[in-house]
Design a protein that fits this description.
single chain, alpha/beta, 5-stranded parallel beta sheet, 13 strands, elongated
Length: 870
């Protein structure tokens, strides 16, 4: 045969190759074996048999065939590559690596060898070495997109995310439209919390794959972390429109809505998830958290119980359940839930904090502080632990330490929702006026932004500003009651008597009780049934016994949830519910959020708007709350014809004053007094008091010893104003009768602004101690003016602080004028309108009757004035 012409073997190989390329593997195998029957050491046929076996998954056979081929040509690169692949497929990665490395000894520039070594290293969890091999492959083949992509994967797994992103960027420079590269780059950016870049990267993915719901979901996650909540929600909305069966999309959509404080819509999203998967633990948990913060604790508790049925050892869920139990006022059960959480995970800081809160609720304040201390030992800068530690210290009257805790909380978390307000409250209580001045602009700024930065009750001590108070209160209420509750009351026909429920924690030895006792006793039982709703402790006092007896029925609801109390009142067909707490401490305004009564009224306990849409009226008078203030109140103003404040004529009137010496007073000299809590004392008023002391030789200022830090700061402030600190005399707290008796030693009671004396002013007037006031704009700043008008001493109501100072000095210098006023007050105890409790009872009953008539006609609440008696 002439040289160069195909042999029979060549022709047979060509036919076998054609069959192989057509995918006719069985026929190709037969053809290769026929060649080997003639030429047993034919390298190509042996190698091709190995490839066929590899393609058919017959790896052990493939290995035998490739070894036979390599016996013929030990340095054949394709056969070595395939042997490495076969070994890797058999799970013999280390042997595969040895083969690839042998290939590199033959050809150091083999890109495939470097690439396969890298893949094997990556698969055997050696990403750093894999990255080096991918890098060498990339140098040898710089335009290979897949090499760069895999290099990026190895770098990411080796903990070099920035280098991984750079490798992906290099790959994208080679192929800008490669969707997979965009996808992996976006995912890597998201995993690195580079949310701004990740959001842009997912936009690039969606530009190339507009209907990709996974990209929409991840874009939403990035936007959510950036606080671009509306954009995140739009991303989820677009995704669920395309793939409504994807429960994860609905779950993340619920999270976005919850962050947007669209609670009802968020709950609907979570419910959509749970309809598809009732055991979706994250949706159950987030739904429960949302229900709890929205005041729907019973429903939250049920969701937590479902989570625990799925994962009984989940410590976080146990402590969350404890929080729900707390909202249901089941404090002992709440404590037990937190203890269970800590039994599972003793180092769970949140459980230690929540345990402290439960202990605080049970009045075990020292134990609560110990729990917070354990939490802070584990996490010294935990803002929530510091914040709650501060609250507990405040309950112990250790306000200076509380202030330090709250400041640490704010330093740890500058965005803490309540720390700044707690600092403001602590500064107020210790008379730290310099700090208050620094805080005031920031409080006003945040309130203007609609943020619930400070409690409305605290704000009254900072600002005589009704519009600001309303903004603050609305933000506070929206934060605590974000969901509108369905009304529980049902329309019923008028009964023989209106059923009036008075709600308070203070039916015990408390200022509200001292004022209200006789009014409750004097209600006309032929027209009204009077129910007491109490959640305060039974202190065993005669005041408690008297109050319980003053009601037709007395309900102790301390262990019941707000919803259960509301259900009970609705079932009892209460006509009018009267809240005596407002937004003061230990309030349970949440009871009224469920609308247990068709008419709901604010009275006496809180001198500002509640900001609640579910409270219809406020009982006031023309002095304390003029109608031009209606725009700053969510309640409709009702004017009583005299002073709004109730008083008790059955209070003792001690006649024999105690000795001055026994009360720390000098034997002689004029005694200015102000028995208000120290936090009501502000710098402008204190400046006046110090000038009065300087201008009245031998005089002293008699104050309540409220807390050590406040007393110390007031003495320091006196010294700074040129007054000897010892001229400030601090009276300890005393029993009511002893406290009333010592008023006989005071010459003139000096009122405070912007928060007047309220019950303390009535105490002074009852004991014929003149009270000097200067009214402001808000309810809290006008109470004393109302009292003084009603007691018959309007001349003690000054038009300005300048007049207030001049009048105080005049009275200190004119004993005859002061004596005449005291004589009028002695007479007024039995004649003045302020102490005419039977008349006030009739006026309030007239107000209730008018409210009911308006309701019965189907009209909305409207302002009216109760006419004076004929």
């Amino acid at each position: 045969m002439p040289s160069g012409e195909p042999t029979a073997t060549d022709e047979a190989l060509g036919q076998a190759t054609e069959l192989h390329q057509q995918g006719r593997l069985t026929e190709a195998e037969q053809a290769y074996r026929q060649i080997l029957a003639r030429e047993p050491r034919h390298f190509v046929a042996l190698h091709r048999l190995a490839i066929v076996a590899l393609q058919q998954g017959r790896l052990d056979e493939a290995l035998r065939e490739v070894d036979a081929a390599l016996q013929v040509e030990p340095r054949a690169e394709p056969a070595l590559l395939n042997k490495g692949t076969i070994l890797y497929g058999l799970g013999r990665a280390e042997e595969a690596l040895a083969v690839y490395r042998a290939l590199l000894d033959i050809n150091p520039c083999s890109v495939d060898a470097h690439f396969n070594i890298a893949n094997a290293l990556l698969a055997t969890d050696r990403p750093a070495q894999a990255a080096e091999s991918f890098a060498r492959a990339a140098v040898l083949r710089p335009d290979d997109v897949e090499v760069r992509r895999r290099h990026a994967e190895a770098l990411a797994r080796a903990g070099r995310p920035a280098d991984a992103i750079a490798s992906l960027d290099a790959a994208l420079a080679l192929d800008p439209e490669a969707l997979r590269l965009h996808y992996e780059r976006a995912a890597l950016l998201l995993s690195q919390r580079r949310y701004q870049d990740a959001a842009a990267a997912y936009e690039a993915v969606l530009a190339r794959s507009p209907g990709d719901t996974v990209a929409m979901n991840n874009r939403g996650l990035a936007l959510l972390e950036l606080g671009r909540l509306q954009e995140a929600l739009a991303s989820y909305d677009a995704a669920v429109a395309i793939k409504p069966e994807d429960l994860d999309l609905w779950y993340n959509r619920g999270n976005a809505l919850a962050r947007l404080e669209q609670s009802d819509a968020a709950l609907a999203s979570y419910d959509r998830v749970l309809a598809g998967n009732p055991d979706h633990a994250r949706a159950l948990t987030n739904r429960a958290n949302l229900l709890r913060t929205a005041g729907r604790a019973e429903e939250a508790l049920a969701s937590y119980q479902r989570v625990l049925a799925l994962a009984p050892g989940d410590a976080a869920t146990h402590t969350n359940m404890g929080n729900a139990l707390r909202h249901l006022n089941r404090h002992s059960e709440a404590l037990a839930a937190h203890e269970r959480a800590l039994a599972i995970d003793a180092g769970l800081v949140e459980a230690l904090i929540n345990r402290g809160i439960a202990l605080k609720d049970l009045d075990r304040i020292d134990d609560a502080l110990a729990s917070y201390a354990r939490a802070l030992a584990l996490a010294p800068d935990h803002a929530e632990a510091l914040y709650n530690q501060g609250l507990a210290l405040g309950l112990l009257n250790r306000h200076e330490q509380a202030l330090a805790s709250h400041e640490r909380a704010l330093a740890a978390d500058p965005n803490h929702r309540h720390a700044l307000g707690a600092i403001a409250d602590a500064a107020l209580r210790i008379c730290d006026w310099a700090r208050m001045e620094r805080l005031r602009p920031e409080l006003e700024r945040r309130i203007g932004e609609g943020r619930p930065v400070v409690g409305p009750f605290t704000l009254i001590g900072y600002a005589d500003d009704p519009p600001l108070q309303l903004k603050c209160t609305r933000a506070y209420m929206a934060d605590r009651y974000p969901l509108a509750m369905p009304a529980l009351w049902r329309r019923t026909g008028p009964g023989s008597r209106l059923r009036i429920a008075y709600l308070s924690a203070d039916f015990q030895r408390h200022a509200t009780a001292f004022l209200m006792a006789e009014l409750l006793e004097l209600h006309d039982r032929s027209r009204f049934e009077v129910v007491g709703v109490s959640w305060g402790k039974d202190d065993g006092s005669t005041t408690r016994t008297r109050l319980v007896g003053a009601f037709d029925r007395f309900l102790d609801v301390g262990a019941s949830s707000d919803l259960d109390v509301a259900r009970r009142l609705a079932a009892d067909e209460v006509s009018i519910a009267v809240d005596l707490k407002g937004l003061t401490g230990s309030n349970r305004i949440g009871i009224l959020s469920h609308r247990p009564a068709p008419i709901q009224v604010a009275y006496l306990g809180y001198p500002a708007t509640s900001g609640a849409s579910f409270i219809d009226y406020v009982l006031a008078d023309p002095v304390v709350l003029p109608l031009d203030q209606q725009q700053h109140w969510t309640e409709t103003i009702v004017h009583l014809p005299g002073c709004y404040q109730a008083n008790d004529r059955r209070r003792a009137v001690p006649t024999a004053p105690p000795s001055r010496a026994a009360n720390g007073l000098p034997d002689t000299g004029f005694v200015f007094c102000s028995f208000n809590n120290s936090w009501k004392i502000t710098a402008p008023v204190f400046d006046i008091w110090m000038r009065l002391l300087r201008d009245t030789p031998g005089s002293v200022l008699w104050l309540i010893d409220d807390n050590e830090a406040a007393s110390r700061n007031l003495r320091r402030a006196a010294a700074q104003r040129g007054v000897a600190p010892e001229r400030l005399i601090f009276a300890p707290r005393a029993e009511p009768e002893a406290h009333l008796a010592r008023h006989r030693l005071a010459d003139l009671f000096l009122d405070t602004l912007p928060y007047n004396a309220h019950t303390t002013a009535s105490d002074a007037l009852w004991m014929a101690t003149p009270v000097l006031t200067c009214p402001g704009k808000s309810f809290a700043a006008r109470v004393a003016a109302s009292l003084l008008q009603a007691v018959g001493t309007p001349e003690l109501v000054c038009r300005s602080l300048e007049d207030y100072e001049q009048m105080a000095l005049r009275l200190a210098r004119e004993p005859a004028t002061l004596a005449e006023i005291k004589a009028r007050l002695e007479t007024g105890r039995s004649t003045a309108r302020l102490f005419d409790t039977p008349r006030l009872a009739r006026d309030i009953e007239a107000a209730f009757t008018t409210m009911w008539e308006i309701h019965q006609r189907g009209e909305a609440p409207r302002s009216f004035a109760v006419p004076p008696p004929a």
